[in-house]
Design a protein that fits this description.
Order of helices and strands: HEEEEEEEHHEEEEHHEE
CATH superfamily: Aminohydrolase, N-terminal nucleophile (Ntn) domain
Strand order of the largest sheet: 11-2-3-12-13
Helix content: 25-40%
Distance between the termini: 91 Å
Structural class: alpha+beta
Largest sheet: 5 strands, antiparallel
Radius of gyration: 22 Å
Strand content: 25-35%
CATH architecture: 4-Layer Sandwich
Length: 239
């Protein structure tokens, strides 16, 4: 009688193979060449997040470009609500930022469903940093602003997954110009209305010098009551 081959498990697969090296298929590389990047829609961008006495104010410009030279869209909303009391900006490649926000929203829903409680803004920032570091989200550098029981928070999240909290922060191609404005005009304990004027002023200064930023400003106000986002084509409406 033929004896069974005991060298293989009952599945018939070779158990000597590493489980971390699947036999079929590989994850495609996420490396993009300079030529690839020429056709990627980028927000270029200037985004600002400010903590206030009443909550958080986030401001972004409204321009997307191709290769940094051609304006592909003049009405891009670069700030999105991702939680009842939190918002996130889009910085970098449009596709990567949009995918990042969709994934983060889904993960937040799972987190709260499993635990039966609202996620804290600190935990949300940590989750966003983990996603940025380990996910296929190309060239993103968002700002997260939110309100919870512990206070009012603004975080910058770098492409390597670093998470840094501050009273105010700026990301994007126009950040060096906008930082000068905020260093001059920011004051601790501002109201939301005062912070909106300061943030819009920072965006306007960046628009004057940065070709990746332009075409108006979106302003998001985050309080314990929710997130309100409005776009303004004319800076005179908010300054």
């Amino acid at each position: 009688m033929r004896q069974p081959d005991t060298s293989l498990p009952r599945t018939g697969q070779d158990h000597t193979l590493s489980p971390y090296e699947p036999e079929l298929g590989e994850v495609p590389s996420n490396d993009l060449s300079a030529d690839d990047l020429e056709g990627v829609n980028k927000t270029g961008t200037t985004t600002i997040g400010i903590t206030t006495a009443e909550g958080v104010v986030i401001a972004t410009d409204m321009r997307a470009s191709l290769g940094g030279r051609f304006v592909s869209n003049k009405d891009v909303q670069k700030v999105e609500q991702i939680h009842p009391t939190a918002a996130l900006t889009l910085v970098g490649s449009v596709g990567g930022a949009q995918s990042f926000i969709r994934s983060l929203r889904a993960e937040v829903n799972l987190y709260e469903a499993r635990r039966g409680e609202d996620i804290s803004i600190e935990a949300l920032a940590t989750l966003a940093g983990n996603f940025a570091r380990g996910g296929p989200f190309f060239a993103i550098n968002p700002i997260l602003g939110g309100v919870d029981d512990d206070g009012h928070h603004v975080y910058s999240i770098d492409p390597a997954g670093g998470v840094m909290a501050d009273d105010y922060t700026i990301t994007g191609s126009g950040m060096t110009v906008a930082y000068g404005t905020l260093e001059r005009e920011y004051e601790e304990g501002m109201s939301n209305e005062e912070a909106k004027r300061v943030a819009a002023s920072g965006i306007k200064s960046a628009v004057e010098r940065d070709t990746g930023s332009g075409n108006g400003v979106f302003l998001a106000t985050v309080t314990e009551e929710g997130v309100d986002i409005k776009g303004h084509k004319d800076f005179d409406d908010v300054l």
